[in-house]
Amino acid sequence: MSLFTSHFFLPLAQALPVAESSAESSSAFQQVWEFFSAGGIFMALIVTCSVVAIAVIVFKAVVMRTHLVVPRAAGETLVNSGEYVAAGTTDQFLANLSDSNSPLTRPAMVALGGGHSAQTSARSAAETIAREEVFRLQSGMPVLEVVITIAPLLGLLGTVSGLVSVFSTIGGALEGDADPTLLARGIAMALNTTVAGLAVAVPTVMAHSYFQRKIERLAARIEVILDAGISSYFAALERLEEQHKEDKEDE
Hints:
The protein is mainly α. The chain is built from eleven helices and no strands.
């Protein structure tokens, strides 16, 4: 009997959890499908919003990495610009900056490689280009703002539309034929779009807030490094001019 049990019932017992797991996954998939299909066109629009939001979030996460916006090597080169000027290697300095094509180095190249003879004009040029670079960093943020706004509204619109349909059906039924269970189920299905809309809007708000704060930090960092680099560059130029004057007076 034990031999029969080990050869028949044991494999059957091992197969039962697999069958139950498969049935549970199929039931879960069916529930998810019913959740989304019950929302109709409004649920489809909310799903579209979620896809757009995910695409923008991934894009921003890739392009806004700190080492791409404010490269450490380029920042150190820019801060030490006065050393290049003192050593007479400004060409190497500009070449090092041009090798790093980033929102930090592009304003620096315009300010220090554009032939500006005065520090004020160089700063003005750098600030103009830096504002443009910060504006570029904002790309995609308006899309997230639109998703944050319309996803809950689509959810609410879907719920209202579903409730209108449910109560119209109940109202058209004969007196005493209305089933409270069906009414509760219809209301629950109508609320699915509100749940979906909020589920899309909440993480999108979090992502938008994170990227907005990061843009502000990166913009402040760019401003500080540009200011230090321009000050060091023109201070070194002034020292060289004074030294040349002193050498001419000694002659």
